[in-house]
Amino acid sequence: THLYNTNPTDRTRYDLAMEVLPGCLDDRNDMQNMTQLPNNGPTNATELDIGLTQDLVICPGDEDWFFVDANIGQILALHLNYDQTAGDLLMEVYDTSPENPLNGVQSSTGNESFNQLVTATGRFLIKIFGGSDAITNEYTLNVSLEGEECVNDFYDNEGTNDAFLTATDLQSDTYPFVVEDLQICNGDLDYYVVDLLPGQLLL
Prior knowledge:
Order of helices and strands: EEEEEEEEEHEE
Helix content: under 10%
Number of strands: 11
Strand content: 25-35%
Structural class: mainly beta
Radius of gyration: 29 Å
């Protein structure tokens, strides 16, 4: 700021008041150091712990990327909470890469949520960003994984009997023939084949 008098012989008294508004301070995940790059892209996504993660911040034009690893059969739940009056925040969820967006994010005032049954073991990417490039807002993320991993049975591990052409042959020299400890995981198909002679009945 430069103040001056156009007439050097005049004398003018005045008061000067200044205010410095605080800028947007990045959260710890946006800080670059020797072991970390800012999580402003999918390749630098920060792993989320199960439970509540607090003190997160979106600055103008910023994106925050996170990831969660989940196993087939588990239920993944994500909850984004923020102060709606400070600006709208949005959440997007992707399966493995940004080229595979997932539907199912539910929006309400100051809250975005996602709840889905995991049908294949893998990594989920989460992007948090402002509704406009001018938004500064704080938020929290709550992550939960419920249920146990669905483990393939013997036949799935031996040859993957998930298709007609790879069906498991259940021939036996004696009947009745019982196969135990079989399991269907979410999104799984199990195929079996049995050869019958004329007049035989399969029960």
